[in-house]
Specification:
The chain is an all-alpha fold. The protein has three helices and no strands. The longest helix has 20 residues.
């Protein structure tokens, strides 16, 4: 695990994850996946492989992959978010307070 005394690595991972949810809601699944992959990599480096936050991100990636496969979704939807996107809503777990 990487030392992250200021918590900036995890904070960036949370921002990337939240942004991925927004991208999913507007139908930009490919960019959402890229953000989630970056969040996953950062969480793995800073928190380690047994982190609940990492597990949540991996789950969100799995749901996104499932959505992409089952809907053959284009990169950007013009008709708004699909029903499948609702599974990727913002996480309900509490996060540590920021500065």
């Amino acid at each position: 695990m990487e030392n992250d005394p200021d918590g900036e690595g995890i904070e960036l991972a949370e921002i990337l994850s939240d942004f991925a949810v927004l991208l999913t809601q507007v139908g930009d699944y490919r960019r959402a996946r890229t953000c989630l992959e970056r969040a996953r990599d950062r969480q793995e480096r800073v928190l380690g492989q047994t982190s609940p936050l990492l597990a949540q991100t991996l789950n969100t990636l799995a749901v996104l992959d499932w959505t992409l496969v089952t809907t053959s979704a284009p990169s950007r939807s013009t008709s708004g978010p699909s029903r499948s996107a609702s599974a990727l809503e913002a996480p309900t777990t509490s996060r540590s307070p920021t500065r």
